[in-house]
Design brief:
This protein is α+β, with helices and mostly antiparallel strands. The chain is 41% helix and 18% strand. It has a four-stranded mixed β-sheet with strand order 3-1-2-4. Strand 1, helix 1 and strand 2 form a beta-alpha-beta unit. The chain is globular.
Length: 116
């Protein structure tokens, strides 16, 4: 089993900032999971920026709802890319899902993990 944590932001910032912030949100939640006994080798995190709002970004209440981290349990390794493609059809193949354990080499490890 893997836990995929996807961070989201509102659209009131430049795209690259939103992606960085959403990724940091997901990483923070991954750290909380680890601190509470979840094995780090099952944690994957990513940032989706402001691409998938769940509320209206034109008001503070909507932006508050959109600033979130979604947590999904995926039980079969081969289903991770399928989940990303289905949940995030516009960008799913471009999202980088980072293994929690090794941030410096996460891109290479994520690519290997997703190619299995």
């Amino acid at each position: 089993m893997r836990l995929v944590l996807t961070g989201h932001t509102d659209d009131h910032m430049p795209i690259q900032d939103a992606i960085r912030l959403s990724e940091q949100r997901a990483l923070t939640i991954a750290q909380l999971f680890k601190q509470n006994g979840v094995r780090e080798n099952i944690l994957l995190y990513q940032g989706a920026g402001a691409a998938y709002p769940i509320a209206d970004n034109s008001n503070a209440e909507g932006r508050k709802l959109g600033n979130r981290v979604e947590v999904v349990a995926i039980y079969h390794q081969n289903d991770i890319q399928g989940y990303l493609n289905q949940r995030y059809p516009d960008i799913g193949t471009h999202l980088i899902t980072h293994p929690f354990k090794v941030p410096r080499t996460r891109l290479r490890q994520a690519q290997r993990l997703l190619s299995r």
